[in-house]
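Supplementary Methods, section 5.1.

A reviewer requested that the exact input to the structure prediction be made available. We therefore reproduce it here, unchanged from the version used in the analyses.
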Amino acid sequence: MAQTKDKELILQTLGTLESVTVKPDELQCFVGFDGFVDEIIHVVDKRVDFETYTRVETIGELAERIGRAAGLSTNIELIPKQMKLGGNGPIMANALNSFGVNVTYVGCLGHPDIHPVFRELADACETYSICDPGHTDALEFTDGKLMLGKIEILKEVNWENITSQLPLDKMVEVFSRSHLVSMVNWTMIPYMNDIWEKLQSEVLPKVKMTNRPLAFFDLADPEKRSTEDIAGAMEMIQRFEQYYRVILGLNRKEASAIATVLGLELGDRPELVTLEEVTRAIADELGIYCVVVHPVTEAGTVVNGEFFHINGPYTANPRLTTGAGDNFNAGFCLGQVLGLPPQECLITGTGTSGFYVRNMRSPEPTELMSFLELWSENVGCDF
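The structure derived from this sequence is encoded cell-by-cell as follows.
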C-alpha cells in the first residue's frame, strides 16, 4: 500500500512539473558563502597489485581498522578518484543552475583568479569571489562519507570582504530580485552570525519584496560548534522569518543535534526517535515556515505545521555521495519556488539527490523528469 501511494505521488509530481506556469529560467536565486575543492577518495582495503585493489566499503570497517591501531600504528592508503567543485554553496548553486535557474553566487571560488574547478559555475552564474577555496578530502563509503576539511581560508568570509566584492547597493538589488536566498555551511564559516546580523540591519530593510520569498539555511554538521553558538544561530535564523518564509534543512544527524541544543524532550537518545517526531519537535520549537530532514533512505518535512513524508530512491551502491544532501536541498527548494505542494517538493528533492548519486552530477530538468519516471517504475527497489 505504501509503495502504491509513493508511486502515485511520484507520477503526480511529474504531472505538476509538466504543468507549472513558472519555469526555472524565470527564477532568480542567491547562494553563498563557502567554496571548497573536493577531492573524492577511496580507502584501500587490500592491494592486489599496483593497478588493482579492494576498497574499504563502510565507515564502520575503517573505524575498526583505526581502532586496532591504537597504541601501535598503521598505514592507510588513499586513492584520489576525482577532484571537483565542493562546498555546500557551490554544489547547491550548481544544481540550481543545472535546472536552468538564474543564480548569483558569492563565496570562495578563487581570488584574484577563479579556481579551475569553479570555472564552469562562474561562467554560468553571476559570481562574486571573496577568496581562495578551502580543500576537502572526502572519503567515500557505501554508508556515508568522512569529510576532512582544511578551512583556514574561510576566516576571509566576512562582511568587509563580501561588501568589497558586492557593494551594499548592488546587494540590495540582488536580494530584491531573488525568489530564493540560500545561506549554507554555517558550521565552517566563523563570521556567519555577523554576516546575518549585517544583512538584517543593513540590507533587508531596504529590499523591496512584493511577496515573502524563501530563505534556505543549512548548518552543515554543527557537532564541533558549542551549544551556545548553535543556539545563537537558531535565534538568528528565526529572525529572518520577518522577511522570508524560512526553510531549515537538516540531515538526520544534524536534526538530533539541533533537538538536543533546543532542549526538546525526545528521550535520552534523540537519534532513535522517528523522523516525524524529531521534525515536528524542531518545527514546533522554532516556529518557522518549514523544517525539512533528509536521512539517506527517506525525507520528511513540516510546512506550516503539517508533516509530510516520502521514501527515497535508495541505492546501496552510490557512485558519489559527497554533495547528495546539497542536491536534495536544491531539488526541494526548486519545488518550493515553483509552488509545488510540500510532499511533491520532497519528491523533487529526493529525485535530484537520487539522480546525483547514480550519475555523479546534477540533473537537467528533462533528466530529473526521466529519473522520476524510472523511479515510479521501481518504487521500493534498488535500481
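The chain has one domain: 2-40+82-377. These observations are discussed further in the main text.
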